[in-house]
Structure formats: C-alpha cells, structure tokens
C-alpha cells in the first residue's frame, strides 16, 4: 500500500502521524511511505531520519494526497484539505465528527473512507488510540490550569500546592476516565486538594483505592457540582462519550457562582465541550474570559509537546496501520472488530450512529460496505 503522511496545518499543531521508526515498520512489510517535506521537523524528526529508513520525501501536501492510498494524520482535515481528498481514499486520523458538521458533510461529499482514531474500540470498551493523547492532555490540563491561575494572566493568584501555613489550591475534575485520572494525578502531585467526579460508582471505588489521600471522589450530579464550584480554583472538564458530543456539565449560569479568576480547562472541547461557555481556542490564543472566569479550551493540547505526543501516538496507531496496509481497509475491518468500530464515514454514508444522530443525518449499517 502507498501511505502518505502530510504536514499538519491546523494552528500550532506540531505533531506528525508517524515517526521514522513507524515508517520503517511499514516499509519492511513492503509498503511505500511518502512524507511531506518537514512534516516531522517540529516533532524532532527531520527529513533525513525518514529518508534513512527508506521513506520518500514529497515537496507539497498536494503531492502527498495525490499519490497516497492511505493518509495518516493526527488532526482532522481542515477546509483547505477537503478538495485534496479523493474518492475511496482511506483517511486514518482523529476526526471528532460529532463536534463539527461542515467536516462531516465534506467527507460525505468526497466519498472517502474515514477511519477515526477516537472510535477504534476494544472489547472492554477502552479506546486504544485515544488513550495516549488523553494521557498527555490530562496531564497538560493541570499544568496549564496551574499556569493560568497566576494573577498576571487574570487568574486568582493561587499556587496549587500552597506553601507551609497557606492552604493548597482546590481542583475539581469532571470525569474519572483516562483524562480525568491523569489530571487528578498531576494535581495531587502538586499538592492540591482534588475532587474527582464521575457517574460510574465502580470507577469511583477504583479511584478511591489508588489515588493519594489528597484526592477525594464524589458522585457527579448537578446538585453536587453546584455545591463545589464556589470553592474551586481550577475546574477541569474531562468527560467523553465516544464519538458523540460531550454533555454540558458546567452551564453558563454557573459562572456567577464561581470566584473571580477561577480557571476552567475543557479537555472535551474537540468533542463539543462539557463546559457550555467553552469554544475551541489555539495555542496562539489559548484563553478568553467570561464573567471574570478564565477559559482555556485549546482543542489540540498535546500539540504543544509534539515529541512526546508523536511517539506515544505512533506506539498506539502503528499495529492498526500495519493491519490496514497489509490487508486493505475492508478486509482488515471485517477481521478486526476494533477497526470496524473506527469507521465513521464510508463513500458518502455515515456508518457511526452517534455522528448521524448529532446532525440528523441518515445512518447506514457499516456491514453494507464490508459484506
């Protein structure tokens, strides 16, 4: 198979979809890998490293899309890429369709095959291609939240860990999944007083057992959220419903109950956000303020640490990419239920129910395209 790796052109997206080591594993199996000029540079992988393992460098993004049978990316295609995507071309990347209707309709119209990292799912319901970036984003959420609590950038002026004689900061984490667990772990490590909320009691029991003493668990309900937000310094939204839009747990009217300079970090923003007032921001302009509450809603947080993120992502995606390249997408998805669940749009049909429901589009059973 011919695999193409274009440069990521979303604002301040410094990751690349494939390391040179990952390219080598595909090339060893008889596949051809084309990498756009300097696609890996910001992640610490210059052209020479790709060429040393047998990958070929192409000068433009147009050339990569034109030649490749499978495109491997990190983030969803943006508008300038829509016209480059060909019918029947396989795109293997994060899409987060349910949060952006124009992208969904563009992929329907170009009749490509869209296999989304974020909905590849194991039998135990875990999301193996979302986990590594969720780990990065969860840890970064606390790191960024701690920074934006500083007074010069309009925060409360609270040091999360406190100092002797001064109470530590308070952190509320909404969601006890991978993102929330990592965020809580980092906040606890800084010495903050942390509350983590979820609706899954089994998960809360587990977190209660494994977290340090400065982390407590609470059942997630509107009443409990409203009780806690007036005393919190940092609130991290870490809720995920696979493939679907996140629910709004922090609503517009709740801002009035928060102290001036409270920081909100919405890690779920690329799935529509779980904080009603959040809208996607960039690393270039990461925050905005509503009612004296600081909002940090960067949709590609791991892009700020591209070396770590690229290596972690390739570790997870490579086995699936090899399977797709070796067998072709149809056979691979027929034989691997995990990959089948990654299929969202196929040749004009929406085959992932949550995406169809998000925009009231017709839903087509994926088996139509696999049989």
TrEMBL record:
It is an enzyme of class 1 (oxidoreductase). Mg(2+) binds at residue 323. The keyword Metal-binding applies. GO terms for molecular function: alanine dehydrogenase activity; metal ion binding; nucleotide binding. Residues 149-297 form the Alanine dehydrogenase/pyridine nucleotide transhydrogenase NAD(H)-binding domain. NAD(+) binds at residues 134, 198, 203, 220, 239-240, 267-270, 298-301. This is Alanine dehydrogenase. It comes from Roseivirga ehrenbergii (strain DSM 102268 / JCM 13514 / KCTC 12282 / NCIMB 14502 / KMM 6017).
């Amino acid at each position: 198979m011919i695999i193409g790796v274009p440069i990521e052109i979303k604002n301040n997206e410094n990751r690349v979809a494939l390391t040179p080591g990952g390219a080598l594993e595909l090339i060893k199996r008889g596949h051809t890998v084309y990498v756009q000029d300097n696609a890996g540079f910001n992640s610490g992988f210059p052209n020479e490293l790709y060429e040393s393992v047998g990958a070929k460098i192409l000068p433009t993004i147009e050339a990569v899309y034109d030649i490749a049978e499978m495109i491997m990316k990190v983030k969803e295609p943006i508008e300038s890429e829509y016209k480059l995507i060909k019918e029947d071309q396989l795109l293997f990347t994060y899409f987060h369709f349910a949060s952006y209707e124009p992208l969904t309709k563009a992929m329907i119209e170009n009749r490509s095959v869209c296999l989304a990292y974020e909905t590849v799912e194991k039998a135990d319901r875990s999301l193996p291609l979302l986990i590594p970036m969720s780990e990065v984003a969860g840890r970064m959420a606390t790191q960024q939240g701690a920074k934006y609590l500083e007074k010069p950038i309009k925060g409360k002026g609270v040091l999360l860990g406190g100092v002797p004689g001064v109470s530590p900061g308070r952190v509320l984490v909404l969601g006890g999944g991978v993102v929330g667990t990592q965020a809580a772990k980092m906040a606890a490590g800084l010495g903050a007083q942390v509350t983590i909320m979820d609706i899954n009691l089994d998960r809360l029991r587990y977190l209660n057992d494994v977290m340090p003493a400065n982390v407590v668990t609470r059942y997630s309900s509107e009443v409990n959220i409203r009780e806690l937000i007036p005393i919190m310094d940092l609130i991290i939204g870490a809720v995920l419903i696979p493939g679907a839009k996140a629910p709004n747990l922090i609503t517009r009217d709740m801002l009035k109950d928060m102290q001036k300079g409270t920081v909100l970090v919405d890690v779920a923003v690329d799935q529509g956000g779980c904080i009603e007032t959040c809208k996607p921001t960039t690393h270039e302009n990461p925050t905005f303020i509503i009612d004296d509450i600081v909002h940090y809603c960067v949709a590609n947080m791991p892009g700020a640490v591209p070396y770590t993120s690229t290596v972690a992502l390739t570790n997870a995606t490579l086995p699936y990419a090899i399977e797709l390249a070796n067998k072709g997408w149809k056979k691979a998805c027929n034989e691997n239920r995990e990959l089948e669940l990654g299929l969202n749009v196929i040749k004009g049909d929406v085959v992932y129910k949550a995406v169809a429901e998000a925009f009231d589009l017709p839903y087509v059973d994926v088996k139509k395209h696999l049989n």
